Amino acid sequence: MSREERILNNARKVVAMTDNTDQIDGSDFFGEGMYYQALTMGRDLHAMSLHYVMFIPTLQGQTDDEQLDEWLTKAISRAVVGTYAQTELGHGTNLSKLETTATYDSATEEFVLNSPTITAAKWWPGGLGKSSNYAVVVAQLYTKGECKGPHPFIVQLRDDETHMPLKGIRLGDIGPKLGINGNDNGFLLFDKVRIPRRALLMRYAKVKPDGTYVAPAHSKLGYGTMVFVRSIMIKDQSTQLAAAATIATRYASVRRQGEISPGKGEVQIIDYQTQQFRVFPQMARAFAFMAAATEIRDLYMTVTEQLTHGNTELLAELHVLSSGLKSIVSWDTAQGIEQCRLACGGHGYSQASGFPEIYGYAVGGCTYEGENLVMLLQVARFLMRAAEGVRKGSAKLADIGAYIGKTGPKTSRLTTHYHYTDADLVADLEHAARKQVFRAYDRLKKAQEHLSPEDAWNSVSVELAKASRWHVRVYLVKNFLNKVALAPQDLKFVLTDVARLYAYDIITSSIGAFLEDGYMSSNQMNEVKEGIYECLAKIRPNAVALVDSWDYDDKELKSVLGRRDGNVYPALLEWAQNSQLNRSDVLPSHTKYLGPMMKDARSKL
Amino acid sequence: MSREERILNNARKVVAMTDNTDQIDGSDFFGEGMYYQALTMGRDLHAMSLHYVMFIPTLQGQTDDEQLDEWLTKAISRAVVGTYAQTELGHGTNLSKLETTATYDSATEEFVLNSPTITAAKWWPGGLGKSSNYAVVVAQLYTKGECKGPHPFIVQLRDDETHMPLKGIRLGDIGPKLGINGNDNGFLLFDKVRIPRRALLMRYAKVKPDGTYVAPAHSKLGYGTMVFVRSIMIKDQSTQLAAAATIATRYASVRRQGEISPGKGEVQIIDYQTQQFRVFPQMARAFAFMAAATEIRDLYMTVTEQLTHGNTELLAELHVLSSGLKSIVSWDTAQGIEQCRLACGGHGYSQASGFPEIYGYAVGGCTYEGENLVMLLQVARFLMRAAEGVRKGSAKLADIGAYIGKTGPKTSRLTTHYHYTDADLVADLEHAARKQVFRAYDRLKKAQEHLSPEDAWNSVSVELAKASRWHVRVYLVKNFLNKVALAPQDLKFVLTDVARLYAYDIITSSIGAFLEDGYMSSNQMNEVKEGIYECLAKIRPNAVALVDSWDYDDKELKSVLGRRDGNVYPALLEWAQNSQLNRSDVLPSHTKYLGPMMKDARSKL
To answer: Which residues form the Acyl-CoA oxidase/dehydrogenase middle domain (chains A, B) (predicted)?
Structure first.
């Protein structure tokens, strides 16, 4: 389909889908809601993606009661379609430098929205280009000559009846992308557009009719929506990686290539150790990330509940955790999908495999909702404060950072991988994480001796990001092991291999962190490697059952290679025959160009 | 453009391009030839890609004199358009299991081509679906009731005049892919198609009229074409990575985000250490790969010259080297392109950046012309023979594998990175490579004690592949350092930082290999890390000049972000406004679906 056709088809589907949302359990957005959407829409998003994921949650989080009544009613009944316009052409993650202004005019009790430059154009919001008629727009609030920083405003963009852009508003689609081309990500420029005072979402900050600014009670209360979206992302990303691992595992059981024992026929490629080593760690990651997604969803629920009582205790911790997880999970997911795709050889390159779409969709997650590296450096700020606290003896560390203040063993307690307890494994990972946190901290302190705080931070930022990665990975392993420990005995047996593979893979991908200063010996490291090979061999007979446990419907997976019935080759041929190019035997490219070229040459031979 | 439009447009361009090939220096295919094609065709390939890269070289390499006269004349004059059909739906890298048969019938002096199953369908050849009317088809040769293995045949597929498929031939396009959608990769099935005896390309193997089979003198003489294609690939891949590094480096100099020093305004993101750490190593890799591409081209020329005198001395070495390089270069290129893309934040996800196309095109190289992991295991066979020779005292190692037989220092000679000589650096890398080669060898020998040779090989294949990676990387570093040593003094000064960054990055990505058994101390490893940070800082002021030295024309680069004039933002807005979706303000998706949905809801409020 062309982009126009996809946009049209997606609009048809999303209206039908939302016509029927009362059929599903709306309270379970993370579960049924996401599944229903995946089944209906695939991996192309749609005109109302941002409406549900950003517009409505922002209204819920940022409006006062009167605004909530008006706007939430309209949004939920689908009388308006909204999006969330924050990022600008020249400004992404650094919110404080957004250029769009909303200047209060007390004479008319209006704000004037303006885009002073090209780089101030709002850029990227999903559904902004063509579908939405409203948006929450984030702009620098000016009142009484002072800038109060970025604030959210609700703004009508298009006429209710004609759907034409309102006066002073210039907007459109931003063009084709790596993926999600059925969504109309858009741009938006304001030329002195007047909106009422009450367009400012006033739950926390307010502007009175005379222009007096009332600051919010807690500066981080606005984090709620971001945390919500990142929580959903972790679930969504793990689902994409699981889809990729399902396709690769199933196809590796169907595909035969090469003989291991001469004369015994070609073997299933899943029997090759190298194939197992490519695919099974991706499956293990998907399980680990799903375990984290459940945890962070619960934490989000708890924090939301606490916030309604004004309790912000856990908010900072959740914010740090969700930022770090978003970064690690999205990166490992993208890498993992590509590994699965490459493990399927040439057929992985075909759209028939489903991989190009899965990758194009998932890899966006490395960038949107906070660029990964920026996220890691935010986590690093938390880690450096924790390290400082430990060094000064004043640390108050919540659960997830407690290891930073602990004294672990001097050397790894690993003897053989058969006797490697969860506790010893976690102690080893915590050692590596703690070591990197303090390496970064010490380098930072040293750099601060001769550089400004900002230059010092920049000069050690590679080490800081590395510390954040360790921090998150320790969390992921601990959480996965905890979840497996709670599983029924027969499941625990199988899942332990998966969790161990996940952990061992992290260790052997950073051998240096463990050999350093003799914390582990080469022999101990060899034990971990043996552990991997053992896990691969033990997972092999359970591999198909493990991915089947995710219960993907063929309709949801959308992959000829990953078909549940394994009938791959006839299906590939059928799929190919439906190629748009096969509608006729001879194409205009032959009739117009290649045919005359050959005829001319033949006549001269 | 739709696929039909792209196919048509590419056919127009390739005919025009080849009308004018006499304007360029045809003897310099690696240089001018590839550049001319890149300028004309971009990264979409075209109907005649395989004609020039596989069909003609195969004719040159595999025909006897009479066949050469007939077919090369037709191919070069463009009286026919040919492709190379080897891979099948169910069979890729394992050539010996191809299912297509060519059975000799001495009664009519013909071969009968047949595809006995669906998995025997030829699958993937570029230009096979719609454009080509001839192909070199690889099929199992049967004569006098015996199978003689896969052999190449020249086969007419479509009628000269009508371009319709000939009787018994079923073929078509295989559908859309991750990239290169302007090429009609195809499928092909034979139903007992008769071709003359002389369709067998008879330079090496022959079948006499009575069906007697004459075997070739040297079993590996057919490798020439593969080596040629892999040599081109290494050049091509390095060019793609260089394009990505150019875009990312230029954009990082234009983009400003965040303040390092408060109040001094936002800084160019290229000043962030993390940004340098993402992008500069990719630039360094591109230089390293280009240096290797030049070397392997020269080696290919030498071998081709030697082969005409029946000298096959260097052929095996070239085959191993080109297989290994193909694997490492294509993987690091794909990874590097994605790193560059992600380093450009959200705009990297837009097609305007050029990255999606560059990635989609380049990453195919991980799979085609020999799947990367299979290639690495081929290199490992050579390494295990070399290790065996060293252990038995009978090694005859050519230059590239000489380190396997050497005894290096017991510990690294590194003191500070300022005094780290090329020789010491290479010795350290050779140590790591040698260690991994013998680790794999010892594990293999041990496994062979209780397993069949094939199962033993499989059980250590992850370690074998790792040994091959080290082997190739040592070659890449040594070759790069050698080339830099030959550069003029003022260039050497700058390129040394780049080469060192390349080498240090390899070391710090595998810290464990050097810390193991105390070969390096933690302090020495910290010196290497300091070396990286030093290189990044020293490359920073030269970065734009370094990528400019590749002299990409905007027309060739095809990236709004990578524009030579740096005028990125207005160009992005202009590019977006040309989106096909912006041809009208209100789309049918609104008129048909979203509009009525909102109207209905409004009426009920």
So the answer is: 84-193
